[in-house]
Amino acid sequence: MDIDFVVLWVDGNDPDWRKEKARYQGKTLDDSNSENRFRDWGLMPYWFRAVEKFAPWVRKLHFVTCGHVPAFLNLDAPKLQHVRHEDYMPAEALPTFSSHALEMNLHRIPGLAEHFVYFNDDMFLLRPMPEAAFFRDGLPCTYGGEVPLELVGRAEIWQQAAVNDIGVINKHFSKKAQVAAYGKKYANRAYRWQDNIRTKAIEKLFPNYFYGFKNLHAPAPYTKSTFEAVWAAEPELLRSTTLHRFRSADDVNQWVCLWWQIASGQFSPYNTRSAVSCISDATIRTLCDTIRAQKTDMLCMNDGEVPVDFEGLRRQLVQAFEQILPEKSSFEK
After folding, report:
1. What's the pLDDT tens digit per position in 3-20?
2. Which domain holds residue 261?
3. How many other C-beta atoms can be found within 10 angstroms of the C-beta atom of residue 293?
4. Which end of the chain is more exposed for a tag (fewer CB within 10 A), N or C?
């Protein structure tokens, strides 16, 4: 089976990109387009090193940008395809600064394999990963237990997208019918027993609608067919998401496709081992220990707050990655 990886990247320091972004956003700054959403920590060499070392079976890496590339990148690497937004996005949607818009059109990337894994640029492999960690018998591997959406205080745009995602799922699937057909995937020995009890309780107490699925903040395996099915079901919603230049409360995001796979039963139960944390003075020691000791399969490091000492934190992360990934990959000059 051919499996590709896809990753989105932006150089938030590119002066031309910043000028264009400022032109379209005006004076509006919110949680969807603040500085930290686009800041580059200079860790992408380790993303490529990790993929080459820990997932050498990958057929092709699709590196998606608005056109710019990091200085270290070897564009002649045999497994690399540099994908510009214009290569797969509708012309009327460009320029775009919305990850939601870019995500919902990934299946249009020229030459993309039917089976692919989508990464944000803050998600790193830390251990050797077999193909079976992402796909089994042609089905995406994911955690399928039901987890109600959690909201505390004012919902941010990503949380509003999650609400919209689950609304789409309940519009197109009968929970009772799907539980009857795929209940053994929703509560499965691959998960913790506590998780299975929660899922069974929710199914019993709230049988009519799905109330949410786990937000793993981890690399997500997909099939292009799933994206095509969601587009066929909700063309106007996905088109409006595509045309928003910045992330909007009216959007859906890639989770609608992940949850569609779960609700439709087209997945293989798997307990994804991934840690997630924001980068800050309070978390940097734990993050670096996790990297050096390779404590988990994958790690997602959100740039959620503006650190007091950006360069100091970045330097510590580089030093940690250098301990496990000191050799250049074929994707570097």
Report:
1. 999 999 999 889 999 899
2. 3-324
3. 12
4. C
